[in-house]
Amino acid sequence: MRICMFTDSFLPYCSGVTFSVLNQASELVKRGHDVCVFRPKPRKRDFDENTSVDLPDKVEIFDVPFSLGVSKVPKLRVTLPSFLSSLWRVRKWDPDVVHMSTEWGCGWEGLVASKLLRKPTVGTFHTFFADPGYLKSFGLPSFQWIQKFMWWYSVSFYNACRFVTSPSKSVKDALVAHGIRFDPIIIPNGIERPRRVDADDIMAKRQKVGIHGPSFVYCGRISPEKSLDVLIGAFALVQKRRRRAKLVIIGDGPLKKNLEAQATKLGIHENVVFYGHVSHERLIDENLLLLADTFVTASKTENQPMSILEAMSFGLPIVGANSKGIPELVEDRVNGMLFEPDNEQAMADCMLHMANKRRKRRRMGHGALMFAAEYQMPQVVDQLEKVYQQAIDQCKNRRGK
Fold first, then answer.
1. 309 and 372 in contact (C-beta within 8 Å)?
2. In this structure, what are the phi and psi dihedrals at residue 38, rounded to the nearest 5 degrees?
3. Exposed e or buried b per residue across 139-152, where buried means at least 16 C-beta atoms within 10 angstroms of its C-beta
4. Which of 159, 89, 168, 156 lies closest to 330 in space, CA to CA?
5. CA 80, CA 106: separation in Å to the nearest integer?
6. Could you tell me which residues come within 8 angstroms of residue 398 by beta carbon, excluding any fewer than 6 positions away?
7. CA 26 – CA 123 distance, rounded (Å)
8. CA Rg, the chain, in Å?
9. What angle do CA 36, 38, 41 make, to 5 degrees?
10. Mean pLDDT across the stretch 71-84?
11. Rounded Cα gap, residues 364 and 146, in angstroms
12. Which residues, including other chains, have CB under 8 Å from residue 224's CB and lie 6 or more apart?
């Protein structure tokens, strides 16, 4: 099978969508498929030691020209569609199926090329761009009419695809509620099984950053849609009861200085470790999520976050907001704990439970590990191959009529 993937989120920009596409492409070439990925043309200076990832040898990368940077989101670029370059390359490459993972400039390049060349299409909806948190992160106001327009735009794009997939039921339900014509097929994001490093190495890393008591980790972008101010506020409440507790924040983004100022104002800056941005490869290879006992997130905008699945694959229980796709991953008191969104006290209570109830935390960590095993890439790509084949067969049948 020959597969063209189009995505506006790809290296050197790192996001959940980036690694979802990367993991799928890697597993597909392992199975003998030919895969190419179209992305917005990046700038050379956007590549550094924190974005280096070894791409599978058989995955071809095509840079779509005429891309612009997004001021609020470093390294993210948006394609200004010209269509000619992609059309020529897709025609020459002659794929069996074209897969769009985003609905912006690069996604339109793929959709238009596939329509003109009469290729079967699959689209995956990953992100709630209409959510006020995401609008704020892109510097847009969260007026009601803008939210409605964003939903109309996204649904219009995916209605033009032959098949539509979504990583979670919450996404599927949202698409149906906003007028998607097809019944979306749920295919979860997949993760690679991590290799565990020696426990002594982890302990040495913990001691290096001053972790000697209960610890919590967040990993991801430091941006408005992640509600990190709620996390800092909740951790301040935890600190009143557990003075040796530490919070490790791995990542970078436009709100980092604001969060540092908030931690200082609350008197907890010495117990909040801003670890900074690290490459995904280093994050996994060095098991950096194991700096902590529990993974925490206050985000209300998540679809099916890769960061949570990866934390579970290391046996970390999750404390997360009871919103969007998170309740589909976190079963309360089984592999983590849920709290009402924006409720700092409720989040702090969950974090204190993890800190104080070690046996229960470990049992939930085991539950997280078992849950993550269901999201390994082979199982996910089994489902994806079936959708691709359905799209190809349906296209052949239409041509035959």
1. yes
2. -100, 130
3. eeeeeeeebeebbe
4. 168
5. 8
6. none
7. 19
8. 21
9. 135
10. 86
11. 40
12. 133, 136, 137, 254, 255
Model confidence pLDDT, tens digit, residues 287-310: 999 999 999 999 998 988 999 999
DSSP β-ladder status, 34-40 and 2-6: parallel
Q: Tell which residue, 322, 339, 307, has the closest CA to residue 238.
A: 339
- List of residues 6+ apart from 163 with CB closer than 8 A: 120, 121, 122, 123, 182, 185, 387, 390, 391
Q: To the nearest 10°, the Cα dihedral for 250, 255, 261, 262?
A: -80
Cis geometry, peptide bond prior to residue 12 (ω within 30 degrees of 0): yes
Average pLDDT over residues 373-383: 93
Are 289 and 310 within 8 A, CB to CB?
yes
How far, CA to CA in Å, does 192 sit from each of 26, 137, 285? Answer: 10, 29, 11
Torsion 308-311-317-318 (CA) sign: negative
Give the count of alpha carbons within 13 A of 91, CB side only.
Answer: 11
pLDDT tens digit sequence for 305-336: 999 999 999 999 999 999 999 999 999 999 99
Chain segment 108-151, per-residue pLDDT in tens: 999 999 999 999 999 999 988 888 888 887 778 889 999 999 99
Q: Residue 47 is inside which H or E element, if any?
A: none
Phi/psi for 236 (5° steps) reads -60, -35
Contacts of residue 305, defined as CB under 8 A and 6 or more positions apart, other chains included, come to: 16, 220, 297, 299, 325, 326, 329
Tell me the pLDDT of the chain averaged across its residues: 93
Q: Which H helix or E strand runs over 186?
A: strand 185-186
In single-letter form, the type of residue at position 264 comes to T
Element (H, E) at 291: none
Alpha-carbon gap, residue 246 to 298, rounded angstroms: 17
Look-up: residue for tokens 């609905």? Answer: 103
Contact (CB, 8 A) for 12 and 122:
no
Structure tokens of 1? 């099978």
pLDDT bracket for residue 49 (50, 70, 90): low
Measure the CA–CA gap between 302 and 86, rounded to whole angstroms: 31
